[in-house]
UniProtKB/TrEMBL annotation:
Species the sequence originates in: Thermus tengchongensis
Domain of life from the UniProt record: Bacteria
Alphabetical keyword list: Lipid-binding
One GO MF term attached to the UniProt entry: lipid binding
Name of the featured protein: DegV family protein
UniProt entry tagged with the keyword DNA damage: no
Gene3D superfamilies found in the cross-reference section: 3.30.1180.10, 3.40.50.10170
InterPro entries, alphabetized: DegV, DegV_C, DegV_domain_contain
Length: 280
């Protein structure tokens, strides 16, 4: 059985990579200044941040429609027997719901999976699924591996300000960090698909050290780890974090570095950096 992969634009996989691997991505939307833009196609994070600095109201985002997914599924099923559709956490977006509604038009031919993640947390699962399918593994085997990764992975990220998460309504358990002193960096995670506070640190350097400490605790006893680094607008902080992680002596490889797309960046703001990782 040939299985096609569909994801959404919040997986933040670079377009050249997706096209090379034959992975379809259904775009979410950014609403800014009275206009609607397709994520990764019609607006960049830099444009959003510039407009906000110039006084534009903070952006909002919206999920794809079931019709958007219907078209993607029709195209995919023209080339495959089944579609595996992996998406942003249902606690952060209604994207999974739209996908499930569209899937009803193709009984038994679409499997929709809530990644309980965002950005490269989705992306790393999509790439792992592609890898296993290319090796000839069955859909059942692929789903078992994706469920394992969903249960057991590492994620930490830091933001320059919590204001974007707050205004976008995605702040979740990180609400506890609001009002922290100037110079205190929030360290965040996703737990059960929801943003949560993982700690705080005084200054950028200490934040990276705290993230590395948490990663070492998670990585203990693991033999092979893949790390997926993400950032928005500025890449210096993620370069420094990556260097710390890769020089830590742990069995970790750099799998991908990618900038956040416009939808995720609309909720995290500029200066976000961090990474996801899973072990083999």
């Amino acid at each position: 059985m040939k299985v096609a992969l569909v994801t959404d634009s919040t997986s933040d996989l670079p377009k050249p990579l997706r096209e090379r691997l034959g992975i379809r991505a259904v775009p979410l939307y950014v609403n800014l200044g009275g206009r609607v833009y397709r994520d990764w196609e019609e607006i960049t994070p830099e444009e959003i941040f510039r407009k906000v600095r110039q006084g534009e109201a903070f952006p909002t985002t919206s999920q794809p429609s079931p019709e958007d997914f219907l078209k993607a599924y029709q195209d995919a099923l023209a080339e495959a027997d089944h579609v595996l559709s992996l998406h942003i956490s249902a606690k952060l977006s209604g994207t999974v719901q739209s996908a499930e509604l569209a899937a009803q038009s193709f009984p038994g031919r679409i499997t929709v999976l809530d990644s309980q993640a965002a950005s490269l947390g989705i992306g790393m699962m999509v790439l792992r699924a592609h890898e296993l399918l290319a090796e000839g593994q069955s859909l059942k085997e692929v789903l078992q591996e994706l469920e394992r990764i969903r249960r057991d992975h590492f994620v930490r990220f830091s933001v320059a300000t919590l204001e974007f998460l707050k205004r976008g309504g995605r702040i979740g358990g990180a609400q506890a960090l609001l009002g922290t002193l100037l110079g205190i960096k929030p360290i965040l995670t996703l737990k059960d698909g929801r943003v949560e506070a993982a700690g705080r640190a005084r200054g950028e350097r200490k934040a990276k050290e705290e993230i590395l400490k948490d990663f070492k605790a998670w990585a203990a006893g693991r033999r092979h780890i893949r790390a997926f680094f993400l950032y928005s607008a500025e890449d210096q902080a993620v370069k420094e974090l990556k260097e710390l992680v890769l020089s830590s002596g742990l069995p970790v490889e750099e799998a991908l570095v990618s900038e956040l797309g416009a939808v995720i960046a609309s909720h995290t703001g500029p200066g976000t950096y961090g990474f996801y990782a899973y072990s083999l």
